[in-house]
């Protein structure tokens, strides 16, 4: 059966001829583009840019070229070589070539300036739609030349005239001369005159220039082809922009006689391992680009979905290895390569788990210059899923190409969407080709964090465009790598630990929270409450060096918790919704929630649930440790900075008391930035309740019962308080915590989440009104709580604000974990204090009714405690 070549359509209409090696037509098809300098486009079937292809085929094409360069240079010189790839099309190809050399560092040019990184050079690409290339290596010596300079290997997808490569070599040779260059391309399409010009150029600069390609040939262009090509593009685009009835007629006219060829229109096999399904088949009658879907070559319902019923979006936490760059924009070393190789299977497992068993045809879609990371994720996913699942790979692009639904044309369909990475050249359209109508059950969109912007998630953004053409959309964000400022202290990157997740650590679902903690479950850390209190107040130990014995509630107290949860679930839901909407409005659209373990963690999980329920957002959420007097976990901050933009991090806590943790966090972030050179974290905390007037971002400033404060681990995923002790936590370790698996039967963490989440719809209108009011209000902290605590400390002869714990939540903690002296209750406070009164009765602690208290209650820890002493003066009194 004859196979239609995907260049026939252009060849027949413009007289363009492709001649050369027998493999050439398998490697290349033809298309037309809107470009004033060159009408035709050579479309590679093995590059993974415009045509979805097996990841192993794409990677193998580049890796094989790299092995040939290694054989040409010899093992020793190959180890010293530097590989330079071209943006955007050859960034992944160049990286694969560098892998084939095995030990060569890699750098690719970029069209994205990076703040604070000075260019080490640049050059022009004359025929491209976007001409300027920048070189931004982190190591300024990477491109250094001289008599002993290593070979420079330059990689592009095609070697057509040689102008781009010659411009590059000329620019670099003037500043960094070297004796040898190797040019690598998939295809060599130069004319005889261009071949002679390269020979003359090598003689001119006095260097050896070798060429390694997979295939060679020429493109014959008849006179006037540019003008005729432009006219043809204009004609076809006018047809595609016609009203639906006319467009359908035009499509039918253009498709006459094609019905019998569609069955064999899979596109040319691109490699010995490729199959006909590498191409894209479409149904007859598909129209051109439509105003509604901006999809050329097909209508919005190709996959049975419409923009009104989009595919669900799932965010996948890759667990990208810390310190490994997202690509070669600033350089990629053999050490980076080794770390990535080790992490790839685990990342593929995460993607596979998120996909589930249903999808059998999957596209991994990269993003412009970000080609290598999604390609390697694709190769790992192929191995993980096995032969029963079909995986393909391609990327989005800046290049505008005409789409024509014909098996003899290389670009069958086109998705159009706005740029989503704040490009230096301003806003504009971007494209994904041969994706619509290709029958993908799921698309895994891979972007870097700099491109995870509102535009990506907009109604006309890439994710929405994809959602109309597939059953599921997964979003995987690779942290954008920014070189350390030259003024920052040098520090060798360490291998950072990965977050812990349920069910191995905590009873929360694995996607609900990643614990940036180490598991100390097998370490005995508990001590009797009185013993801990004496050690803490005597200065013999810090409260974070041990754990209190977990309080096991009585049946009466458990019933009180259940009643309190039922009574306050809607109130909690309103506060959750209000604080989440405020965060999304001021820190959105993709905040990274980082809760302060452990009181903040149930709130962070609920905020995540609200964002998903109301907005379809899948926000990342982590829990970190902060310790009063010791600061926040610096290793956790380094992990966050390596995996996310620090500016996106929003710290979350349950409530404020007097604001001690608010101040602690601000001081800790400042110290961390000064010592690490990492900046961008905002120390402001978002809390459910702010009775102390200590923060700007809150759900309410009422002091009311938050049921999660009533219990310990059994309402917080069965996780203990965090632990920081020198013999257990090293300088590069996360702080520790325990997972109380043995308390599973008493766990109500899921019940708490379910009870509050069930009220989300009920409170939605109230939340919208409250959030709108808050966003327009003056929310400057008043620090009213701190002033009250100082007054109480002096009035009661305590003289230590750390022993005064204001608010329902903090008072509950005093009764559960410390040695309480007395409880101050605001006169007239009702149901919110029922559990407080029960706990006080159980522990024999007096409750004193007072007026003019800004909180519902205040818990006073026993001052100057020694076992047997209860009075403020440290002496034993009756009733101790």
Automatic annotation (TrEMBL):
Residues 506-756 form the Cysteine protease StiP N-terminal domain. Residues 245-265 have a biased composition (Low complexity). Residues 235-315 are annotated as: Disordered. Signal peptide: none annotated. InterPro entries: PELOTA_dom, PRTase-like, PRTase_2, PRTase_dom, StiP_N, TRSP_dom. The keyword Glycosyltransferase applies. SUPFAM superfamilies: PRTase-like. The keyword Transferase applies. GO terms for molecular function: glycosyltransferase activity. It comes from the Bacteria. Residues 783-862 form the PELOTA RNA-binding domain. Residues 27-217 form the Orotate phosphoribosyltransferase-like domain. Keywords: Glycosyltransferase, Transferase. Residues 326-464 form the TRSP domain. This is Phosphoribosyltransferase. It comes from Streptomyces rhizosphaericola.
């Amino acid at each position: 059966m004859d196979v239609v070549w995907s260049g026939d359509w252009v060849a027949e209409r413009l007289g363009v001829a492709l001649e050369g090696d027998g493999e050439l037509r398998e490697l290349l098809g033809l298309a037309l583009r809107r470009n004033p300098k060159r009408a035709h486009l050579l479309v590679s079937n093995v590059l993974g840019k415009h045509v979805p292809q097996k990841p192993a085929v794409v990677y193998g094409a580049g890796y094989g070229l790299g092995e040939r360069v290694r054989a040409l240079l010899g093992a020793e010189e190959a180890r010293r070589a530097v590989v330079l790839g071209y943006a955007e099309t050859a960034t992944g190809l160049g990286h694969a070539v560098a892998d084939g050399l095995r030990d060569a560092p890699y750098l690719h040019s970029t069209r994205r300036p990076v703040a604070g990184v000075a260019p080490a050079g640049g050059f022009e690409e004359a025929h491209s739609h976007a001409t300027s290339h920048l070189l931004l290596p982190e190591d300024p010596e990477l491109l250094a030349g001289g008599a002993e300079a290593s070979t420079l290997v330059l990689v592009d997808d095609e070697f057509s005239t040689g102008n781009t490569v010659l411009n590059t070599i000329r620019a670099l040779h003037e500043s960094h001369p070297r004796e040898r260059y190797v040019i690598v391309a998939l295809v060599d399409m130069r004319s005889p005159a261009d071949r002679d010009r390269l020979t003359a150029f090598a003689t001119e600069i006095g260097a050896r220039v070798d060429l390694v390609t997979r295939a060679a040939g020429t493109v014959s262009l008849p006179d006037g082809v540019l003008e005729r090509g432009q006219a043809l593009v204009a004609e076809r685009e006018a047809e595609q922009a016609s009203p639906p009835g006319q467009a359908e007629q035009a499509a039918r006219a253009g498709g006459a006689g094609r019905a019998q060829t569609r069955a064999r229109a899979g596109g040319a096999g691109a490699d010995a391992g490729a199959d006909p399904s590498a191409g894209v088949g479409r149904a007859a009658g598909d129209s051109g680009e439509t105003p509604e879907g901006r999809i050329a070559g097909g209508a919005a319902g190709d996959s049975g979905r419409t923009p009104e019923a989009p595919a669900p979006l799932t965010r996948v936490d890759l667990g990208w290895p810390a310190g490994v760059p997202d690509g070669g924009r600033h350089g990629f070393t053999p050490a980076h390569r080794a770390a990535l190789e080790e992490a790839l299977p685990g990342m593929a497992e995460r993607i596979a788990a998120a996909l589930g068993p249903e999808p059998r045809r999957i596209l991994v879609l990269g993003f412009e210059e970000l080609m290598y990371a999604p390609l390697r994720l694709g190769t790992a996913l192929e191995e993980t899923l096995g032969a029963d699942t079909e995986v393909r790979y391609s990327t989005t692009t800046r290049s505008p190409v005409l789409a024509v639904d014909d098996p003899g044309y290389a670009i069958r369909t086109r998705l159009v969407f706005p740029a989503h990475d704040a490009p230096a050249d301003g806003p504009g359209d971007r494209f994904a080709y041969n994706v619509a109508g290709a029958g993908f059950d799921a698309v895994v969109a891979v972007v870097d964090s700099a491109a995870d912007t509102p535009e990506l998630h907009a109604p006309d953004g890439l994710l929405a465009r994809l959602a109309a053409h597939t059953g599921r959309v997964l979003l995987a964000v690779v942290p954008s790598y920014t070189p350390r400022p030259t003024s920052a202290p040098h520090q060798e990157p360490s291998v950072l630990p990965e977050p812990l997740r349920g069910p191995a650590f905590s009873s929360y679902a694995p996607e609900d929270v990643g614990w940036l903690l180490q598991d100390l479950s097998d370490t005995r850390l508990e001590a009797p409450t009185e013993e801990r209190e004496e050690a803490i107040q005597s200065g013999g130990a810090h409260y974070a060096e041990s754990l209190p014995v977990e309080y096991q509630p009585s049946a009466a107290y458990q019933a009180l918790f259940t009643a309190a949860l039922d009574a306050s679930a809607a109130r909690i839901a309103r506060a959750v919704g209000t604080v989440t909407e405020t965060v999304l409005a001021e820190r959105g659209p993709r905040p990274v929630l980082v809760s302060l373990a452990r009181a903040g963690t149930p709130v962070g999980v609920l905020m995540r649930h609200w964002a998903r329920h109301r907005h379809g957002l899948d926000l990342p959420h982590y829990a970190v440790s902060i310790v009063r007097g010791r600061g926040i976990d610096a290793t956790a901050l380094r992990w966050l900075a390596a995996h996310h933009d620090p500016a996106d991090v929003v710290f979350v806590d349950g409530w404020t008391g007097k604001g001690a943790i608010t101040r602690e966090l601000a001081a800790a972030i400042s110290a961390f930035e000064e010592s690490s050179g990492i900046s961008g974290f905002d120390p402001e905390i978002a809390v459910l309740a702010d009775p102390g007037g200590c923060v700007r971002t809150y759900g309410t400033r009422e002091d009311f019962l938050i049921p999660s404060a009533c219990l310990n681990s059994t309402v917080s995923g069965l996780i203990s308080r965090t632990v920081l002790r020198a013999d257990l936590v090293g300088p590069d370790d996360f702080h520790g915590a325990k997972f109380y698996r043995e308390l599973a039967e008493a766990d109500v963490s899921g019940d708490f989440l379910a009870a509050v989440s069930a009220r989300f719809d009920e409170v939605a209108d109230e939340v919208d009104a409250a959030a709108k009011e808050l966003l327009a209000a003056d929310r400057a902290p008043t620090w009213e709580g701190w002033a009250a605590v100082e007054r109480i400390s002096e009035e009661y002869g305590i003289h230590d604000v750390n022993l005064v714990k204001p608010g329902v939540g903090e008072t509950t903690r005093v009764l559960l974990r410390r040695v309480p002296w007395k409880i101050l209750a605001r006169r007239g406070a009702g149901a919110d204090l029922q559990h407080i009164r029960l706990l006080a009765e159980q522990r024999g602690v007096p409750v004193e009714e007072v007026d003019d208290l800004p909180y519902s209650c205040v818990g006073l820890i026993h001052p100057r405690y020694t076992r047997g002493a209860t009075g403020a003066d440290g002496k034993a009194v009756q009733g101790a």
